[in-house]
Amino acid sequence: MTSTDETIITPADLAGGGVGGDDPDVRGKFGIFGGRYVPEALIPALDEVAAEYEKAKTDLDFVREFDHLLRTYAGRPTTLTEVPRFAEHAGGARILLKREDLTHTGAHKINNVLGQALLTRRLGKRRVIAETGAGQHGVATATAAALMGLECVIYMGAVDCERQALNVARMKLLGATVVPVTNGSQTLKDAINEAFRDWVTNVEHTHYLFGTVAGPHPFPEIVRDFARIIGVEARRQVRELIGRLPDAVCAAVGGGSNAIGLFHAFIPDEGVRLYGYEAGGRGAETGEHALTLTQGSVGVLHGARTYVLQDDEGQTIESHSISAGLDYPGVGPEHAWLKDSGRATYEGVTDEEAMEAFALLARTEGIIPAIESSHALAGALRLGRELGPDAVILVNLSGRGDKDMGTAMKYFNL
Amino acid sequence: MTYPRTNPAVAAGAVERHLRARRDVGRGLLMPYVTGGITPGWTDYLRAFAAAGADAIEVGLPFSDPTLDGVTIQQASDAALARGASTRRILADLSELSGLPDLGVPLVVSTYYNLVLHDGPEAFCAALRRAGVGGLIVPDLPVHEADELTGVAEGAGIELVLLASPATPQPRLAEISARSRGFVYAVSLMGTTGERAALAASAAELTGRIRRVTDRPVLLGFGISTPDQARGARRHADGVVVGAAVMRRVLDGAGPDDLRAFLAPLRQALDQECDRPR
Fold this sequence. Notes:
Number of domains of chain A: 2
Largest sheet of chain B: 9 strands, parallel
Radius of gyration of chain B: 17 Å
Oligomer: heterodimer
Strand order of the largest sheet of chain A: 3-4-14-9-10-13
CATH class of the largest domain in chain A: Alpha Beta
Number of domains of chain B: 1
CATH superfamily of chain B: Aldolase class I
Order of helices and strands of chain B: HEHEHHHEHHEHEEHEHEHEHH
Radius of gyration of chain A: 19 Å
CATH topology of the largest domain in chain A: Rossmann fold
CATH topology of chain B: TIM Barrel
Strand order of the largest sheet of chain B: 5-4-3-2-1-9-8-7-6
CATH architecture of chain B: Alpha-Beta Barrel
Shape of chain B: globular
Number of strands of chain B: 9
Largest sheet of chain A: 6 strands, mixed
């Protein structure tokens, strides 16, 4: 275990750990995916963010400050927990959980927001805006804004505000203004639309603290790099524990930041299989799901070319998931690229499967996971049965389930 | 004074020739906007625009996620989509009018890039052409992403209009102006579409900067809804785009004649002698 005064992140970790070959090109493209499909008015701001980030990530003072916050504020490194009683339901495969649920604010989102809040300060901007689905990114952003004295406005779909009322209260307590978004499907995608509208209007003094690895370049790269610590730590921890790398790495995929954060350090490890689990909602056949990579087609949404859930006319389809954080009809362009290149495999997990895994982890291990993370847990159960008892599976427990108790009470009649 | 030509080798397309010809006789250009498919007989609005003295007409193909649009165009898009509007149906409606010959005014379609990509840029541009459309505006396609569309559009005879914003630095503005076809769409302010109390101060500065690098017609859009604003815009730009002010009236139930009446004073304002710093 790393002691609290030991550096956990280095410029090399931030800059991709020398992985090479998997960074976007100068126009922010991962193969055909990514790019910047945004109004002209935002291009100078994106250029500014990209340029400042390029400087920051090799600036030892910036990296030290980020490292300091990760250790002393976010609570890193997070531990690795083996869950043998849970794994009995996975055909005996060993399952290891990367405990992002133990970070400050209770989800992996804190990693990205601390990095971007530091970047905001470097940019000389005094206001941050953010979108949020489950409320976790909103809470994390409000937290970082409070810590650094930034004005903070959070856009959240009105439906999500209702589903995640506790997180709305948290954000308000932290001093943020929460704006319920009442147009469209009133969920994450509409919150992002509204945040873009704010940004194009207030870009001079505002940073859009984007919460996932989607959106226009450089957000997919920046958010990935700030989340990358998850996989960097986990890779080392698994090796220390079992003397080798895991056979498979699993994460839930909505926009895809917790997944890319865990995957990225493992991409060069050819023997490690990468599995992303999307929200299957009520089932692929019902049309009520968020199976962007597995059922969607290539399009442009929120500034990036990527897989999108769209109808025969090219209109975005409203996604469905019991988990607000996965309820998104787009996905980060690097995932689209990992899918098409075959490096990662993406599958669906239904609401029902996720809720079974949610309850199972609680009962067998005393850990209540976020419903988002429960999709990865359900995937790991399925994968374990496929890979057999010798397999070691690493799962990103991306967040804790406290925020989901309302949903759980209804679902299980608690 | 004469303008420096951006690229004399490129022959102007039909939309640009039409706008240049009108501009060069001193006429202030008016391009009203309508969301395609907003009502059952929506193409009657186009006839009303032409009758009201429009110099070009912008037809929006509604998209589910209009990130650059304010609340009025959002509502119009949602209403049109709820009625079953689609690219295919809107273009079918337009092909019955066949643009310039019938209306005497070029048609310019605007939409978000996902709808262009959906059938592929080639098929999309060919469909526009068949429907009698001459120009295309894609507000979420900045110049550096436009490569895959510019050649295809040019080949299909569609003039791809690029947008410039107050934040655009001068070298980039030169590139946008050089690569834009039809006209240069000057976005008057940092913000979304929608009516504003006054013409943004950034409008004059931006159009001035565009004029330094091109002699293409420059139309100013975003937040222009009153005769006063049109008059103010005319001092700097060759003309104006009027969108949200039209669509708010359509959403409130205005018919073609109402819009004709609404546009008349705007037309008059643009026709007045202006003390423009030419």
